[in-house]
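Q: Could you fold this chain for me?
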Amino acid sequence: MNVPGAIKAITFDAAGTLMRVAAPVGKTYARIAGEMGFVLSPDKLDRAFREVFPAMPAMAFPDLHGRAIADAERAWWRQLVERVVNRAGGVAAFEKYFDALYTHYARGAAWRAYPDTHPALRSARARGLRIAVISNFDSRLPPILQELGIEELTDAVIHSTACGAAKPDRRIFAHALRTLKVTPECALHVGDSLHADFHGATSAGMGALLVRRRKDLAVQDIPTLPDLGKLDAFLERHLQG
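A: Sure. Below is the predicted structure, expressed as C-alpha cells.
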C-alpha cells in the first residue's frame, strides 16, 4: 500500500472529493438557457460535457501572471462551454449565456459539500494534521470553499491556475508540500481520480488514497475508501510519529 509511515499532513482534491455541483451540469446548463428563451436537452448537455471536459488542455498557465491568468481562466471555460452547448444545439446569445453560467459557478450556492466532508476535515485537524486542498480549478475556488465552510478547516487552498501546474503534474503537489512545510513521505493525498490524484500524488512521493464515491470505478491493488466517512478509521490505523 502506498501510504506514508508517519502522516503529518493530508491533502484533498476538491470537486468529487470534498464537494459536488448542487445540480447536474446538464440540468443547470439547460435551466440557464431556458431563462434566456433557448431550449436545450439536459441529457445532451450532460453527455457533451462528459465528452468535452476530459479532452480539454490542463487548466494551468505557467507563463502568465496577474490579470492575464484571470483572462485565461475565463477563456478556458468559455471554450469548454461553447463546445458543450454547440453539441446540444447551440445558444444564439452565447456571450450573455456564458457570463451567466460563469457567474453561477462562482457562487457557493452552485456547490454542495458532501455530508462527510466537514466531519472528516475536523477529525484530521483534531489529530494535529496540516490540511490543504489541491485542485485543478481556477481562482473562483477559494471563495467557493469559504462559502461552503471548507476553507476555514484547511491551512491552504492550492489551485492549478495559481501555481501554474495541474494534477497529475508533480509540481502542484510539491507546491502544496512546500506550503505545508512537510516532506512527501509524511503526506497523504485523498482524491477521486485514479490518474490525477492517485498517480499524481504517488509520482510526487506522497501516499495516496482513492475515494470511490462512484461505485462504477473499478480498481485493484490500490488503497481506497468508499467515502470520507471512513477516513478517520484509516488514520487511526496508520497515524504514527
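A (continued): Strands lie at 9-12, 19-21, 111-113, 130-135, 156-159, 187-191, 207-211, 224-225.
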